[in-house]
Amino acid sequence: RVHTVGSDAEDRQNFDEAEPALARAEALEPDHPATLAARAGLAQHQGDAAAAAAAARRAVALHPADSDAQLRLARALSQQGDFDGALAALQAAPGLAADPALAAQIGDTLVDAGRLDAALDQYRAVAARWPDHHPVLSAMAFLLPQATDVAGRPKPEQRDIALAPFDAALARPADVSMWQAAIAAANGLGDGQRLLDWAARAEAQTGLMPAWRVARLTGLRLLGRHGEALAEARAEQARFPAEGAFANHRAWLALHQRQFAEAEQAALAASRLIPHEQTAWAVLATTWRVQDDPRADWLLDHDRLVMTEDLQVPPGWASLPAFLADLKQVLE
Fold it and tell me: For the chain: N or C, fewer Cβ within 10 A?
């Protein structure tokens, strides 16, 4: 079970624990699929694409039917910039014809290579064969607005086209993961009305869950219904006191309504529940700054915390100007 311990530690991103556990696994069962998977995954997390590819390539050679190993190999090769090698590995995978994850990874690799229209064609083919494979529906939703035949259309029309595959999927009985994927896509594309509609339908089908109420609050915010959203955020925070997302929403909405005392109280609650999420800290800093509270300078600490970093082109965008143009629209 040593290889499992190493893999579990890697999943928790506890690399100091993962490395010695993995070394023990390699001494005992060097060719076990889980050992090779853990070595490839750890190397990937550490940014060593060559080591990740080597471990994955050995796993594929020893266990050619291991689809996860094929995926790891393709991702490692893509990380090295060897897109042709990644595509060749995927196309040679014995399970390609029956595995939507492998087929979708071809699209992901084409995106990484900047071949967006080809990627979209691949995603469409995967969605046609596996219409309930929501990862490919998500990939399509974020890629479609950049496609040659969609990019020039008005923003609302782009959103409708991008989210149409989810509309079709949700017309059938859908499980929680499909609803979550659809709502994440609508959120990412800024479609407030769909968020409201889909959150209500998800709750009707699957029962009350914090995620559906968070989606509703986000939809109200996107539609500019801030007063209504603040009233609901107060009620939901009382209903789900352990869920930091509601305190986060309440903090932002209270600040927007210039309810500074309430914004501070909610932001402090959120910062305790989800300390690594930045919204609460940003609300605190802004609330204190507009009130000339010296704690703003202490929290922001520009001399120590503000730095300059070069932006890299994220997956899904062909160029940095294209990404910055989309980022500008989101931030505005």
Answer: C
